[in-house]
Design a protein that fits this description.
The chain is α/β, with parallel strands linked by helices. 42% of the residues lie in helices and 11% in strands. The chain has a 4-stranded mixed beta sheet. Bound molecules: iron/sulfur cluster (SF4).
Amino acid sequence: MGAVVNIDVILDRALAGLELSAADAELLFTAQGSDLQRLLETADHIRRERVGDHVTYVVNRNINFTNVCVKRCGFCAFSRGHRAEEGYFFPIEEVVRRAQEAAGHGATEVCVQAGLAPRIPGSFYIDLCRALKTALPSIHLHAFSPEEVLYGATLSECTPEDYLARLKDAGLGSLPGTAAEILDDQVRDTISPGRITTADWIRIIRAAHRLGIPTSSTMMFGHIETPRHLASHLVLLRDIQNETGGFTEFVPLSFIHQQAPMYARSLVPGVRPGPSQDEVMRVYAVSRLVLQGVIANVQVSWVKQGPSLAAQCLAAGANDFGGTLMNESISTAAGADHGHFLAPQDMRRWIRAAGRMPAERSTTYRILRMFGESDEMPEAAPMFESYRQITQSSEFRFRAAAFS
Ligand code: SF4
């Protein structure tokens, strides 16, 4: 008879730096009460050993240049059909203007992701990169999910590999590893029929890493997934990282249910209203134990979890506070009520309140500036318009005819 595997045995293995299996992770995802407490303490210890006590953040701006999309993912409250009154589309010069404004406020990165607008030219994403890098050569362009890369490649009638190479030539710095949700086709077909497949997501991420384009990695939880799905997802990401080394970070993302069509319109039976606080903490802790230092950085999402819970997750294995965002739209549209901008000084305040020291980083985790116990002279935070203001304004109304 084999040895009985219980949570303590798995925690000891993790403390010894051993690689956990998917079955180990699945069991950890059931931890409750005192088991959960020991899991959190173990994750905090491993985080300290692997990456130290500083908590990093990046000054960036999200530019979601259109909310018009040809797909209908069940969790997405951001997208609009091309005839919808609230559909908007920023022309390239407006995206550049927003990036310049962000750089003026100290941003080192712009994060560009959007809906898949109908009838855009296949070269659109490449033209956008080129325009941004021409105007702002030193800004890091963190842009386009694997879904958008696939869309651009399909419109251009080329392979995603060729399209990625063209994006890199045009100045793309890194890719958000979004559109991952849960990398299991059964789950994907239920919550987002027609979404990029698991195989295509992996193919595009691997191709990006081979080309020297780093990516982040993500997982959306708190909907219909089970502990088995979460465990397999984490092990899959770890396997890719062991092969390519191209992931900069892992970002668990709580499902925001309020306005998500699959919840609000009961489109998916059994869908849960997002994760509980315990679930969020548990996901962070198990992620740290499975990823150890292989994917060294585990990022909280203040926009999904709120800054208070995000700060608590720093004691459950996380070491990065994410970006300032300036115009977060996607979670805000889904009903997250934590705002669309967290000023750098507010990030530092939350990090210090969690008993840790803040450090500003680049997109690829180069430390740009360390901070001490307090800010000498906190600067005034700038103001940016909300998603609602963007959709209500007629200034950038989407006109499909513009591309025909
Ligand atoms: S998640 Fe992305 S692809 Fe899916 S509907 Fe929303 S904007 Fe479109």
